[in-house]
From TrEMBL:
It is found in: Cell membrane. Pfam families: BCCT (PF02028). It comes from the Bacteria. The keyword Transmembrane helix applies. InterPro entries: BCCT_CS, BCCT_transptr. Belongs to the BCCT transporter (TC 2.A.15) family. The chain crosses the membrane at residues 12-32, 52-72, 93-112, 146-164, 191-210, 230-252, 264-285, 322-339, 351-369, 409-430, 450-469, 476-495. The keyword Plastid does not apply. It is a multi-pass membrane protein. Its main location: membrane. This is BCCT family transporter. Keywords: Cell membrane, Membrane, Transmembrane, Transmembrane helix, Transport.
Length: 663
């Protein structure tokens, strides 16, 4: 009985079981018949690129424009959470986790390979090698710049906003609340989360499989280890996933945060070394040129479809830009949910600026240092030898280090950085999968996170053994088309949610409800200037607030309104008026302590805290202190807030937040 009682789960079975069944079915197809799966899915992927390339181009443009517009508007001041919420992580830790989860491993894999390949085969005519190099960097910046992070940012912002502001589950279904309403808790919501679960599992597993191949190639080149056998690669997967499970077990604040900070430190060290060991002045000049060229041509590149170009250019677009857009979209449920989880308490403007600009600028600096260095070395040092190996991307980074000092040391650091990136992606992926399968439930048991880590490793190992990675990659990219349409719906949902939120923030009590007339001003003055301790505030709540709320509740019940007063274990007292189909009216008061400003003088040792009898409401507004009010004034304040609540019920713009379920 004890073992049964201690076993618990937060899994939502209508999401977990269908998702697991779909994962098993698709995995069996990709591993038992990889050739036919790759042929069928690859053909479908190419057909989608040809027929719906315009849709990807316009949708990604909408994502970027939407985020920039929200950041520049008054909506940017809204917090992701209640108005008094504070960020859980420092700015440095937050940016480090954004960088590591978003595309850190991609920079290691493509930092040298992509600029070099564009340089060798530019889609537009280049008059000379210098023009080809500049075009290569423009295209690389386009694929790794603002558009990629706009895709992640849309999903992350929608999840964080509706999860923390509307108090809905931290899952994709919450983003469709303005469209589906309470139906997000039924089959439609389950279907959306199942889609996100399957897409995330295969997106992460496929990337891990390709990443292990690069890690094996690096170990073979640097240490001379024979890593060509499948057994060695499977061993690498086992080690990486074991470390990921250990990190996931320590939690978000310890494991993922510390690994992300280690990632960022190692990446900065490697970046600085290549900058100083390579053609430093040329790289600094190139970075300025690359930024200017990228931003000046941003609009043209955003909407470019090569409709007036050659068939070769259209094929290039499908094999590069559209492939990137689809890949970022397929990863957006994972990355978006992860950055949403770590962004509670930040304003929408801070979120958008941080997500769009900080990782983008780092990506562009990284691509300049590694990409321009590779092109310069191929021209002036390697005599074309480095470019001749550009097709073998797995080992290209380590061949690049052959032309720099301290080759063995830098290669070893790169291998360590790749490994840590894998662990970070895997453990954050396990946490995100657990959150999706639990529909955002907090404090899930450890075994669930470990289960998802094991499933990711097993999926990557099975695909690598059977040669089904390409088939599954094609299927993952196919799923990006319907999810792009869902993301457009998420943008519409966000706009509606922000409108309703702004209506709530702007609504003011009627002037006639300003109840205080100046009576008992000496008592009020004493209460204003005194600094009560927690016991005094709680005594005020028990002797003044609680009877006042009881009086209001009794009068409401006498008038046919379902009202009740409850008292929490923390001493809070809450008046709740049930409103079927709408968010209940809540007027809560509790003892709230907060540090005094550092510049205030302290007359006693415990005066570093200020205790308030602070109100709380169901719609996320910031509460205020009422410890200086008398019972009659508290009653007047309750009625003032209730009148405001009833007024909002009559306004169509405020209906969305008014009808959201409160907790």
């Amino acid at each position: 009985m004890e073992s049964v009682r201690t076993f618990r789960t937060t899994l939502v079975w209508p999401v977990f079981l269908p998702g697991l069944l779909l994962i098993a079915t698709i995995l069996a197809w990709a591993t038992l018949a990889p050739a036919s799966a790759e042929s069928l899915l690859g053909g479908a992927q190419r057909a989608i690129s040809q027929q719906f390339g315009w849709f990807y181009i316009l949708a990604v443009a909408v994502f970027l424009i939407s985020l920039l517009g929200i950041a520049a508007s008054r909506y940017g001041d809204i917090k992701l959470g209640p108005d008094d919420a504070q960020p859980a992580f420092s700015m440095t830790s937050w940016l480090a986790m954004l960088f590591a989860a978003g595309m850190g491993i991609g920079l290691m894999y493509f930092g040298v390979g992509e600029p070099l390949q564009h340089y060798l085969s530019p889609p537009l005519a280049a008059a000379n090698p210098q023009a080809a190099a500049q075009q290569a960097m423009n295209l690389t910046f386009h694929h790794w710049g603002l558009h990629a992070w706009a895709i992640y940012g849309v999903v992350g912002l929608v999840l964080a906003y509706f999860g923390f502001r509307y108090q809905l589950p931290l899952s994709l279904r919450a983003g469709l609340y303005p469209i589906l309403g309470e139906r997000i808790h039924g089959p439609w919501g389950h279907a959306v989360d199942v889609f996100a679960l399957v897409s995330t599992v295969f997106g992460i597993a496929t990337t891990l499989g390709y990443g292990v191949m690069q890690l094996a190639a690096g170990l073979q080149q640097v240490a001379g280890i024979d890593s060509s056998g499948i057994g060695f690669k499977l061993g690498l997967i086992a080690v990486v996933m074991g470390l990921a499970g250990l990190s996931a077990a320590t939690g978000l604040d310890k494991g993922v945060r510390r690994l992300s900070e280690l990632n960022l430190s190692l990446a900065l060290a490697l970046l600085l070394f290549v900058l100083l060991a390579g053609p430093t002045v040329y790289l600094l000049l190139a970075f300025s040129d690359n930024l200017g060229s990228y931003f000046s041509g941003l609009v043209a590149m955003t909407f470019r479809t090569f409709s007036y170009g050659t068939q070769a250019q259209q094929d290039w677009l499908g094999g590069w830009t559209l492939l990137y857009w689809a890949w970022w979209v397929s990863w957006s449920p994972f990355v978006g949910l992860f950055i949403a989880r770590i962004s509670r308490g930040r304003t929408i403007r801070e979120f958008i600026v941080g997500v769009l600009l900080a990782p983008t600028l780092f990506n562009l600096l990284w691509m300049t240092v590694f990409g321009n260095s590779a092109i310069w070395l191929d021209l002036h040092v390697a005599g074309g030898a480095l470019g001749a190996t550009a097709a073998n991307v797995d080992s290209l980074l380590f061949r690049f280090f052959d032309y720099l000092p301290l080759t063995q040391l830098t290669s070893a650091v790169a291998i360590l950085l790749i490994a840590v990136f894998f662990v970070t992606s895997a453990d954050s992926g396990a946490m995100v999968l657990d959150s999706i399968a639990s529909v955002g439930a907090a404090h899930s048991p450890l075994w669930q996170r470990l289960f998802w880590a094991v499933l990711l490793g097993a999926t990557a190992a099975a695909l690598l053994s059977a040669g089904g990675l390409k088939a599954l990659q094609a299927m993952t990219l196919l799923s990006a088309l319907p999810f792009t349409a869902i993301m457009l719906l998420l943008c519409y949902s966000l706009w509606r949610g922000l409108q309703s939120d702004q209506c709530h923030q702007a609504q003011q009590p009627a002037p006639a409800t300003q109840f205080w007339s100046g009576h008992h001003w000496q008592q009020r003055l004493r209460q204003l200037v005194q600094r009560p301790d927690a016991a005094n505030v709680q005594h005020f709540i028990d002797t003044e607030v609680s009877p006042a709320l009881d009086t209001v509740a009794a009068e409401l019940r006498d008038n046919g309104v379902a009202a009740q007063v409850s008292r929490g274990a923390d001493g809070a007292v809450t008046l709740r008026i049930d409103q079927p189909g709408q968010r209940d009216f809540v007027y809560s008061v509790q003892c709230h302590g907060k540090p005094l400003p550092a510049f205030l003088p302290a007359s006693r040792s415990d005066a570093d805290m200020q205790y308030l009898a602070q109100t709380g409401f169901a719609d996320g507004r910031e509460g205020y202190d009422i410890r200086y009010l008398r019972q009659s004034e508290i009653i007047a304040d309750v009625l003032k807030q209730y009148e405001r609540y009833l007024s909002l019920q009559l306004q169509q713009r405020g209906q969305l937040l008014s009808s959201a379920p409160g907790h």
